[in-house]
Amino acid sequence: xxxxxxxxxxxxxxxxxxxxxxxxxxxxxxxxxxxxxxxxxxxxxxxxxxxxxxxxxxxxxxxxxxxxxxxxxxxxxxxxxxxxxxxxxxxxxxxxxxxxxxxxxxxxxxxxxxxxxxxxxxxxxxxxxxxxxxxxxxxxxxxxxxxxxxxxxxxxxxxxxxxxxxxxxxxxxxxxxxxxxxxxxxxxxxxxxxxxxxxxxxxxxxxxxxxxxxxxxxxxxxxxxxxxxxxxxxxxxxxxxxxxxxxxxxxxxxxxxxxxxxxxxxxxxxxxxxxxxxxxxxxxxxxxxxxxxxxxxxxxxxxxxxxxxxxxxxxxxxxxxxxxxxxxxxx
Length: 331
Hints:
Elements: E1 5-11, H1 17-22, H2 27-32, E2 35-41, H3 45-55, E3 61-65, H4 71-80, E4 84-88, H5 102-114, E5 117-120, H6 123-129, E6 136-138, E7 159-164, H7 170-186, E8 190-196, E9 207-211, H8 217-222, E10 226-229, H9 235-238, H10 243-250, E11 255-258, H11 263-266, E12 273-276, H12 279-291, H13 293-310, H14 313-324
Parallel strand pairs: 1-2, 1-3, 3-4, 4-5, 5-6, 7-8, 7-10, 8-9, 10-11, 11-12
């Protein structure tokens, strides 16, 4: 009889999106496969780090999610871990404005070199991880698509463009507000719904602000008409793993996204939505979906089908299991 194996996940905190989508959502699946799971947060200073180092030898596998450490902590964690996996879904080796950072790159290189395996959320991250370790596997961020199968009514008085995000990424949405304002003048039913922890500056387009929560995000997406994902193009955004786009498509929404990073891989322009680069393209894409309800519906269904085929949790989890069954992670 195979003994129970214990996995320790380490991340910044339990409330972060990376923790939810790269760890916690897999826990029931691990349990079904006979694993036990544990999560520890690095927030909490020295005591938190000491607890992690104390618990690491008790785990068969230690998974560090999107977190790097000073060299001494990385060395100690490697020393005390039977099998160490590094998981990243952001370009944590550079600054959030895309500019290089020697400190971040050095920390990233240190943990990448000593890891038994690296899970990278997109091809850009894979390529950067391969600079320091040849044991890298593409593990895309995924969803339990079954959770998005809900029956809801969309509003009749408004046509909602929905954006889900956070204060840190709202700057990309603010960049396209002038485009949305002009469209709202032409089409008074247009409304911008933001599902987030922030608000926007005064704008001419009607805005519905919905505080984000795990319990309401799916309903708020499903009751919208178009999912929008504006971004700029730099090393930081190339490291993003298209979570909002995946959510839109899982909720049967057509997507209008900047033609940037992994968004350009997930969205099939003309089939599941539109990839755009200019103000004119943004305007034409939203206008086309606004005026063509049937086409919008068809694209939404096609997007959901793509998520089911490539980004559903059941498919991605099997890929993870394959790696965990490899010799280097089978102590």
